[in-house]
Write a structure and sequence with these properties.
By secondary structure, the protein is mainly β. It has two helices and 23 strands. Helices cover 7% and strands 36% of the residues. The strands form eight sheets. Strands 1-3-8-5-6 form a five-stranded mixed beta sheet, with no helix packed on it. The chain has a four-stranded antiparallel beta sheet with strand order 2-9-4-7, with no helix packed on it. It comes from Panstrongylus lignarius. Keywords: Disulfide bond, Glycoprotein, Kelch repeat, Repeat, Signal. This is Putative multiple epidermal growth factor-like protein 8. One of its GO terms (cellular component) is Golgi apparatus.
Length: 299
């Protein structure tokens, strides 16, 4: 009787990541946790079909998945991540092999993770941590979370305040440009890039330059052409993990900006305090106290 009791207590003390996954779906509701195919140092099972459903309290919250390790049979065994609670939801990532994937974020209030393996060769699987937050990346601790959107400090931008507004001082020391009033680099003629680091007259090359952060949906199998007359890169079509794309996007080297075919700028910056919607404005008012909106009038 004592032996049986000790065995039951030992099994119940194991955390979810220490128990090999099976064909059932595990539902996770805590704001933070670790998911894994099983105990560290062991391989996942053949013919696996393991699921983890992460549920936030609100559809306006963000679920972030950060991979800590990755090891599956390349091109045969996969970890799929969906932005939703079913396999019909938009796919966020399809990962296989030993390269640790980038972070993925779900915005629907649900994230579904699937480990699929065939009936042959297996490896040590994956391990990842998830977190649920009111704002994307908790605004990288460089802004304020207001109504599930980041209001960034003056020197930072992006949906999670992770992008420097005027990186590297806009390369001002070597004639690159200057930091404009909209907190982005304004490049001098002949210079381009996020920090105005790329000189169009540089014939030596052999350097990487960041031209822009975001601004275009990730895609594959697209067509692209550079036209010298407009100093622009034109990208058409392709496909992502969910759809065949038929759009035309254009990168203007003179302004270091992506545009659609109508000339609308595809920006990747977070909203500023001067562009808050009514919900966000009410949240700001609630933070400072003493006022509220009644019938469209602030009292």
């Amino acid at each position: 009787m004592r032996l049986v009791l000790l065995t039951v207590l030992a099994v119940s003390a194991l955390s979810s990541e220490d128990v090999p996954c099976d064909r059932t779906r595990k539902v996770l509701t805590k704001p933070w946790g670790i998911i894994s195919d099983g105990p560290s140092g062991t391989n996942y099972t053949q013919d696996s079909h393991c699921q983890w459903l992460i549920k936030a309290n609100s559809s306006k919250q963000f679920i972030t998945l950060k991979f800590l390790s990755m090891g599956t049979e390349c091109s045969y065994d996969y970890v799929y991540v969906y932005d939703g609670d079913s396999f019909k939801s938009p796919m966020l990532g399809s990962f296989s092999g030993k390269t640790v994937p980038q972070e993925v974020v779900a915005t629907s209030g649900f994230m579904l993770v699937l480990l699929y393996s065939d009936a042959n060769y297996v490896l040590d699987g994956f391990r990842a941590e998830y977190s649920i937050s009111e704002c994307l990346g908790n605004c990288s601790r460089r802004g304020v979370c207001v109504a599930h959107s980041c209001v960034c400090e003056s020197e930072w931008a992006g949906p999670d305040c992770s992008v420097a507004s005027c990186p590297e001082g806009c390369s001002a020391n070597n004639g690159g440009g200057f930091c404009a009033r909209n907190d982005s680099c304004q490049c001098y003629p002949g210079r381009t890039g996020v920090s105005c680091s790329l000189d169009v007259n540089d014939v030596v090359g052999n350097k990487w330059h960041r031209l822009y952060s975001g601004g275009i949906n990730a895609r594959a199998a697209h067509s692209a052409v550079y036209l010298k007359d407009t100093d622009s890169l034109y990208v058409f079509g392709g496909y992502d993990l969910n759809y065949v794309l038929g759009d035309l996007v254009i990168f203007r080297f003179k302004t270091s900006r992506w545009e659609d075919e109508q000339g609308n700028v595809s920006d990747n910056y977070a909203m500023s305090a001067s562009h808050l919607d009514s919900e966000a404005l009410q949240a700001v008012v609630d933070m400072v106290g003493g006022a509220k909106e009644v019938g469209g009038v602030v009292e």
